[in-house]
Structures are given as C-alpha cells and as structure tokens.
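From the pipeline queue, job 12 of 40. The input is one protein chain; the requested action is below.

Action: predict structure.
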Amino acid sequence: MAEHIHKCLTDLHYTIAKLCPLCNTTTVLPRPPKFSLQDKYAALRREEKKKELKEKKLY
C-alpha cells in the first residue's frame, strides 16, 4: 500500500506519519478535493473565499 505525505497544521511540518513527530498533533492530507462538474459545495467555497477577501480588504 502506498504511503501519502501528511502535513502538520501547527508547525507546517511534512511527514508520512499520521501524528506529527515534533508536536504530536494529528496531520492532514494537503491535497485538494477531487474535481467534479457536479460540485455541490462550490457555492459555499466561493462565499467563504469572498468573506476572506473582504476581511483582508482585497475585494
């Protein structure tokens, strides 16, 4: 079985383990979601992105 690279969100460290060896927090797979033409959550993602840009005063 192939191992995938994981990323720790607290110290931004990459590892193959499911727990970060530096801080013992759980890691996540840093891959984007699979593309689909019937994307049910695209509108929600666009709204969140718009809110984020408005907070940074870039929109």
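Job complete. Strands lie at 6-8, 14-15, 27-28.
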